[in-house]
Amino acid sequence: MNRLKKFFLTFLFTLLPLVCCGQAKVYTTKVKLADFPISTAKVVLDGSAEFTEALRESVLHFWRVSPYEFCSPEEYDKLKNDHSLYFLRPVEIDGTMCLVLSKGGKDRDPDNLKEAFNIVDMPVGDKYEHFGAFIDILQDFVTAAMESDRVAFAGLKYRNGPGSAQVRQLAHSAPERICRVIVGHCIITYDRDTHELCHFRK
Q1: Element spanning 117, H or E
Q2: Most buried one in 119, 120, 132, 195, CB count within 10 A?
Q3: pLDDT confidence band for 2 (50 / 70 / 90)
């Protein structure tokens, strides 16, 4: 039995380097986002006039973490395979309108660094008065995801640990600052003054 086990382990360690050498290098989300601050984010204006106006005004007033330009859905279709660009666009997910922040590129590109991927989905619905806060929440998330793969993996729930304590503290010291917004099946709790996400439940 020991001889069989020894043979199996020898075979495994001989085969493993061969398998690894044949695979493309896989980059983490943190590495993929390294160029975010210097890359242009294309904001896709799509949807109703009220929606696009609320999105445009919120981006104009609150976007601060990278260069940005507005574009049409048609322009997005032409540019979406460009891995040097990021995109912020409205997408309906499970019946709820969301703002999806994604990196351009081709699906299943052999070069993992150039592959398209979604960074985060922010439920927004038709809560236009909260769009400024939603834009800030998106920016805070991507900034944190650039520093931590754990944050990137957790999505907007990354704040739920310390965020829960923050909600209790705010509720005690300044309850008027707590804002809870129900968007579809999600509850988004944030600080009115700072737009900092306190808790996200889906």
Answers
A1: strand 117-123
A2: 119
A3: low
